[in-house]
Amino acid sequence: MWPNVSAASFLLTGFPGLETVHHWISIPFFAVYVSVLLGNGTLLYLIKDDHSLHEPMYYFLAMLAGTDLMVTLTTMPTVMGVLWVNHREMSHGACFLQAYFIHSLSIVESGVLLAMAYDRFIAIRIPLRYNSILTKSRVMKVGLGILLRGFLSLLPPILPLVWFPYCHSHVLSHAFCLHQDVMKLACADITFNRIYPVFLVAVTFFLDALIILFSYVLIIKTVMGIASAKEQAKAFNTCVSHISCVLVFYITVIGLTFIHRFGKHAPHVVHITMSYVYFLFPPFMNPIIYSVKSKQIQLSIVHLFSVHNRA
């Protein structure tokens, strides 16, 4: 059976009823997108350039920044296209590919946050074995595992979209393609596409969050056993950045889930806005959190600017 190649493209949607002010709405969106690109791009450059940041903790941070950059580059063209020039048409192939990357990268980000929790767990619970456990090769294997989990787990629900016939309205509810949006337009049995994502969320986001929570319970137990209050504060301080990123990510996930499940009577613009918050807020906040909370990142930024000023 050949893939469905219906001539009718999908139509993206910006903010319904606010089309006349899309050019004004585009200003904060563009500012946030640029900030995300600059912030995460700077983090990647610092980690690559500064040898003092060549540690497992910062390798995982580089993965987080890279994931946030990819999410931004995946959604930015279509969102800004709709807001700037009302370019709404999107081919089936491009739409399926965008949905695949958007959802895969969300699972990758959850996996990176879990790996960062594991890093902090080893650093505080068994610091003397930290370097022997988190070797460069092991960090690379963990990173590869995170990528494979994210990108392979999304193939089962995305591939059927290619063969589904689409005889309903071709209008999507966002300025980017989401699996749950596209599958509702199919004139086919979408039972698997409804059930599989629930299972996937349970074994990725939910399980990752539980393991992160459990690891921090053990970390707190270890820290509270340290006699010196100064050492306790120092140990906690190494976790603050990661805890903040975890909260930003999972609070937006929970917020979006609650809006979709229990906010059926909320205005449509609220649903759309929450979706944008979910995709833009964590990538926007993560570089800020690490720039404010990590002294090594701060020192690296100062060094970078001082070198450029001397030049």
Automatic annotation (TrEMBL):
Membrane recorded as keyword: yes
GO cellular component, one term: plasma membrane
Subcellular location: Cell membrane; Membrane
Gene Ontology molecular function: any one: G protein-coupled receptor activity
Major subcellular site: membrane
Residues that span the membrane, as ranges: 27-47, 59-85, 97-118, 139-163, 195-219, 240-263, 269-290
Domain G-protein coupled receptors family 1 profile intervals: 39-290
PROSITE patterns in UniProt: G_PROTEIN_RECEP_F1_1, G_PROTEIN_RECEP_F1_2
Family stated for the protein in its record: Belongs to the G-protein coupled receptor 1 family.
Function of the protein: Putative odorant or sperm cell receptor.
Protein name per its UniProtKB record: Olfactory receptor
Organism annotation: Pteropus vampyrus
